[in-house]
Write a structure and sequence with these properties.
The complex is a heterotrimer of chains A (250), B (164) and C (53). Chain A is an all-alpha fold and 250 residues long. Chain A contains ten helices and no strands. In chain B, 84% of the residues lie in helices and 0% in strands. The chains are: A mainly alpha (250), B mainly alpha (164), C mainly alpha (53).
Chain lengths: 250, 164, 53
């Protein structure tokens, strides 16, 4: 029965509760994420900046989309990772889950910032303004502040373990913001355009523009994963710096 | 003279950098409050319409309800209840901290924004005679979500605060 | 894209497109190198303490 559980049960997952195991696996994964990411981004950049045709309405200005969309997507995926890791840490009491959350926060925040900045640079020539208080832009800005709140709350606690858990609670309360951002474009008839890529239904976007966008989305996601893995290594090692295994790998 | 000035400036900047958390927190607080004002008012620039819901929001609190204003007051009841819950979570998370400063508002304000968006939208729609049902339903949904889940969050937060 | 000149001027939108890509490059590079450097710093700290002990 135990053997069966080990093969098909949650044992594989619980191995990640071991710091040296998580450290090693994260380290092994980094190149597997990083190199494909570099390739995909290189191809995507070629497609986005060179081979894809200019938009008939927005000209070459639309090429910001190849940065903006992946960043916006990652800003939300980052928070999803934050929320899931926080939940695992709180509910299953896996301390290392908090390490993943701590690693994901600055990463996610930086891509939220990038989404906002590239959005503003895209909006200025297209809509005539850097900013407008519509639902999606505002929600994305709030997402940035949710990230900041998470990082600030974690740091405010003297005991890092308590800080982890308090920030985890905050992350979970804030997760409501995610569907609001995602659906805000559907709910409000606002300035920000609707979704560009519909899975399965066919897209609004020309194929020559679609494949570079997909390359960039996947490439950026793998890049995020590589950075996250390396950052998780740092988090784990710092938390366990007194341990014997840490002395071995240092 | 200018050497003394620049030395003082450098010293102050270094001190501020060492405690940059403290310096940034008030700044973020004010940015957040600035963000809230356009949300509380309509994003449309028409002056009368843009201030009317905000004025009604305040006036209904002071005056009491008559007929049509009941929708506005309903949005207030739903919204302020959610805000109380969020405030409670924020307080529970920061109660154990010695130097929380303006951390509590910074934590709570982003969480309060969806409530503000929907509440102001419901109020504006009610004021213009449009149907605020959608926004009110969303507020009610947020309140239901909050009532069921936030007590657990508060319990967890208090536990963490007590332990540290 | 028909010419290198069009690539540089981005059909007139260069003032918006290139800063966007530049900021993206900064964000990506910082996120790429900062975790590794932090890891190295932590490892150095551990080794130093190990040596002192």
């Amino acid at each position: 029965m135990a053997a069966l559980n080990n093969k098909y049960g949650w044992a594989w997952f619980h191995r990640f509760a071991s710091p040296p195991y998580l450290y090693r696996v994260a380290g092994l994964l980094v190149p597997w994420f990083a190199w494909p990411a570099a390739a995909l981004i290189a191809v995507g950049l070629y497609g986005g900046l060179w081979s894809s045709p200019p938009d008939y309405q927005q000209g070459d200005g639309f090429r910001i989309i190849y940065i903006h969309v992946p960043s916006a997507y990652l800003s939300m995926m980052g928070y999803a990772i934050l929320a899931v890791a926080s939940a695992v840490g709180l509910v299953w009491r896996m301390k290392l889950a908090h390490a993943v959350a701590a690693a994901a926060a600055p990463l996610g925040a930086s891509f939220t910032f990038l989404a906002l900045v590239t959005g503003a640079l895209w909006g200025k020539p297209m809509w005539g303004t850097f900013w407008v208080w519509d639902a999606r832009l505002t929600s994305e800005l709030i997402l940035l502040f949710l990230y900041f709140g998470f990082i600030a709350l974690r740091r405010a606690y003297e005991d890092p373990r308590s800080g982890d858990r308090a920030a985890a609670v905050l992350a979970l309360v804030g997760v409501v913001n995610l569907p609001i951002i995602h659906y805000s474009v559907v709910w409000w008839n606002s300035l920000h355009q609707g979704a560009t890529v519909f899975v399965g239904q066919g897209s609004d976007i020309a194929p020559g523009m679609l494949w570079p966008l997909l390359c960039m989305i996947f490439g950026f996601t793998l890049l995020f994963a590589a950075c996250l893995a390396r950052s998780v290594q740092a988090e784990v090692l710092e938390r366990e710096r007194g341990a014997a295994w840490a002395a071995e790998v240092a | 003279m200018s050497r003394a000035l620049s030395a003082l400036l450098v010293r102050d900047l270094k001190l501020a950098y060492r405690r940059r958390g403290e310096v940034l927190t008030p700044a973020m607080f004010f940015i957040l409050v600035t963000i809230l004002f356009p949300l509380g008012l309509s994003p449309q620039p028409e002056l009368l319409r843009s201030i009317a819901p905000g004025v009604l929001w305040t006036a209904a609190l002071l005056a009491g309800l008559i007929g049509q204003e009941s929708l506005l007051v309903l949005s207030l009841l739903l919204g302020t209840s959610i805000l109380s819950l969020l405030g409670a979570v924020g307080a529970a998370l920061t109660v154990g901290l010695r130097q929380s400063g303006m951390l509590l508002p910074i934590l709570v304000l982003p969480l309060a924004v969806p409530v503000l968006i929907f509440g102001a939208q419901a109020a504006a729609q009610a004021a213009h005679g449009e149907d605020p049902a959608g926004a009110l339903y969303l507020l009610a949904a947020l309140l239901a979500l909050g009532l069921t889940l936030i007590p657990f969050a508060i319990a967890a937060a208090v536990r963490v605060s007590l332990e540290s | 894209m028909s010419s290198f000149n069009e690539f540089l001027t981005m059909g007139g939108y260069a003032a918006y497109v290139w800063p966007a890509y530049a900021i993206a490059a900064v964000v990506v590079l910082v996120n790429l190198f900062a975790p590794g450097r932090r890891l190295k710093r932590i490892k150095d700290g551990i080794r130093r303490r190990k040596g002192a002990a």
